[in-house]
Amino acid sequence: MVARAMGNFALRDLRLVAPRDGWPQKKKIKKGAMQAASGATEILSGARLFPTVEEAAADLHFVLATTARQREMVKTVHLAEDGVFAARSRMASGQKVGILFGPERTGLDNDDISLADAILTFPVNPAFSSVNLAQAVLLVGYEWFKQGEQRSPMAVGEALPAKRETLFAFFAYLEDELGKLRYFGDEDKRAIISRNLRNILHRMELSEQDVRSLRGAVRALVRRRDPA
Amino acid sequence: MVARAMGNFALRDLRLVAPRDGWPQKKKIKKGAMQAASGATEILSGARLFPTVEEAAADLHFVLATTARQREMVKTVHLAEDGVFAARSRMASGQKVGILFGPERTGLDNDDISLADAILTFPVNPAFSSVNLAQAVLLVGYEWFKQGEQRSPMAVGEALPAKRETLFAFFAYLEDELGKLRYFGDEDKRAIISRNLRNILHRMELSEQDVRSLRGAVRALVRRRDPA
Predict the structure, then answer these.
(1) What is the spatial distance between Cα B228 and Cα B225, in angstroms, rounded to a whole number?
(2) Under DSSP, is residue A12 helix (H, G, I), strand (E, B) or coil?
(3) DSSP class of residue A154?
């Protein structure tokens, strides 16, 4: 149903992260998926599999995470129309963008969301906000296609943002060094503090050069600490 | 799934026309429908049943028919965003509006569409335009709710359009009188010619008074023919 919703709105590049039942699926399930896809089988058979969100997003410059509920995180929240406009504008300037959807029922967890640059959400009846995965893809696809027909993307700045793999590697490096310094206090606070740090760094919209500079600064601080 | 999509976007009034499997459905099917509705059971249990589109639309002032494919009919076609805006503007002026969706697979037939004031359609990938019923409701619901959050409806003219039952009764009267005059030629052309006439009359946006005037004019012509 996701592939079909993508097909309706001319989206092609499907990336799957650690599907619960593996991929390709067992024949019977796969047949069901192919039937549900109803003509969008090219999208399904071209789907690429990744073990983690980090790897799925590695080559992208901008990632939007879709959520229905409000999150406590300090992160830019776009309504679907504006989020799609931001994403299309970046694409028109040569950036690779991705939209991250959560699994059925649970949705994205906070760690997944902390890897995204911003949140994309829908205006929805607060008393009745459950939208399933294929429906979420359908709504984003609809906005995507509609804007392609109606609205010109805005030119965005020339400097490409860092690829997400560069940024994620910097997150890992920074958090590792901070961990050695017991910066996180109790280890169980590490997840929360790391998410906050990531959200701050996302808001800086760092370029490759920016990440290199920050990494160099952190390395200099680390060397001063451990004059080996 | 339709009720659920309505619930997501705070729509409540569901009208069913001649459901294939009857209504309320047999227990087993009904249970499935209630599960799929997932919390939107109030909408399902409040659904009203009508034998025909004419009766379902009788008390409304404005009806939009949703279609994916292009039709040959000469009828105003709104993209979803504009159609919803037109409908909301009429509602804000006290009119009752309805959106007509076709059955799964076949969609609305031309006779159904000829009863609507205008067509509402989605921008969709022409190579892959099959959108199922619940998805169509979801997309219209999304536009509906979004505009409620973001956009003020426009005030429309003071004069209410005729209720659809007044208009449909006039159609029936006019077509009956024309039939007696063999206006339609071959009886098999009657359907096509009737649809054309209805589409012309829809474009006039007749008020109750307009319909009475036209009906009086037709009656006068008929009496002249049959001086009983």
Answers:
(1) 9
(2) coil
(3) P
The residue among B47, B49, B160, B41 whose CA lies nearest residue B97 is B160
* Structure tokens belonging to residue A203: 């808001």
A161 preceded by a cis bond (ω within 30 of 0)? no
In this prediction, the answer to ipTM > 0.90 reads: no
Mutation target among A81, A142, A150 for the B interface, most CBs of B within 10 A: A142
**Binding-face residues of B in 64-93 toward A, CB within 8 A:** 79, 81
Buried b or exposed e, range B72-105, using 16+ CB within 10 angstroms? ebebbebbbbebbbbbbbbeebebbbbbbbbeee
The sheet carrying B77-79 orders its strands as B77-79, B118-121, B62-66, B97-100
Residue for token pair 């047999």: B26
* Contact call for A130 and B39, based on CB within 8 A: yes
Q: Within an 8 Å CB–CB cutoff, is residue A38 touching chain B?
A: yes
Q: Is residue A218 a contact partner of residue A177, using CB atoms and an 8 Å limit?
A: yes
Interface contact flag, A145 B129, Cβ < 8 Å: no
Encode B145-199 in three state secondary structure: HHHHHHCCCCCCCCCCECCHHHHHHHHHHHHHHHHHCCCCCCHHHHHHHHHHHHH
Residue A175's contacts (CB-CB under 8 Å, 6 or more residues apart) are A190, A194, A197
pLDDT tens-digit profile of A81-127? 999 999 999 998 889 999 999 998 788 988 899 899 999 998 888 88
Residue A38: CA count within 13 A, CB half-sphere: 14
Distance of residue A42 Cα from the nearest chain B Cα, in angstroms: 12
pLDDT tens digits, B145-202: 999 877 777 666 667 889 999 999 999 999 988 888 888 888 788 888 888 888 888 8
- Chain B contact for A33 (CB, 8 A cutoff): no
Best of A41, A77, A125 to disrupt the B interface (most B CBs within 10 Å) is: A125
- Give B 113-172 residues with CB within 8 A of chain A: 122-125, 127-131, 135, 138-139, 142, 145-146, 149-150
Complete DSSP assignment for B13-26: --EEES-TT-SSPP
Residue A220 banded pLDDT, cuts 50, 70, 90: confident
